Amino acid sequence: MSWIALLLVGLGVTDLVRSCRPLGGLEGCVGGSVAVLLGLLAGLTSATDVVALILVAAVGVAWGLLVRRHLDGGSAAPALGLGLGAVVAALLLSGAAGEVGGAVGSWVDGSGLPGVRDLGAERVLLVAGVLLAQLSTGNVVVRLVLAVTGTVNPAEDPEQQLKGGRLLGPMERLFIVGLGLAGELTAASIVIAAKGLLRWPELQSRTDQARIHRLTEYFLVGSFVSWLVALTCLALLRA
Questions:
Q1: Of the residues 27, 47, 126, 128, which has the fewest C-beta atoms closer than 10 A?
Q2: Which of the 8 DSSP states describes residue 137?
Q3: Residue extents of the structural domains in the chain
Q4: pTM of the model as a whole
């Protein structure tokens, strides 16, 4: 699973850089470089692994450019297609990945952090990728799906009314993943209920019902996509 882990790291770093300090589409260069460096530190230096690292870096660069193009008014479909296709390809080819070792393996074996040594180097790498993906990439995926399905109206962006979603999304995804790793996945229903209660006053306004219907659709589609991102990553960790 090391390739999918590095892919998630690359995408996660790319989107974090964009959210913190936009580089005009060059965020993917940073994300791809971090993924390649981490892969080399993990001892993935065989010919097959090097080719995979190059492809991961290329996906990171392309992802950064396509997402930036969408944010500038372009179609969301290319970025969404690239992201989904890259994840599926990495999963299908994961069996060909080399064993994680190198400096990362040495750090995991000598780590005094609770549970890290028991997880193993490959699993630690995957956890890092999953956590990074929850922070910002999940928001980007939600945004792309909303745009592709036509839920977002560029002339009246619901995000202007539901600004808290940018913060609530990463928090709820991290909470769901954490509960799942702790074996308390059923407790994730608390997250869903809490988010619904937070949005209830906005979605029950008696004025401008047409706008309320659009906000409700935005809320439901965005929430379910966000939860699917978290649950899919959790399934990777529990595989």
A1: 47
A2: I
A3: 2-238
A4: 0.85
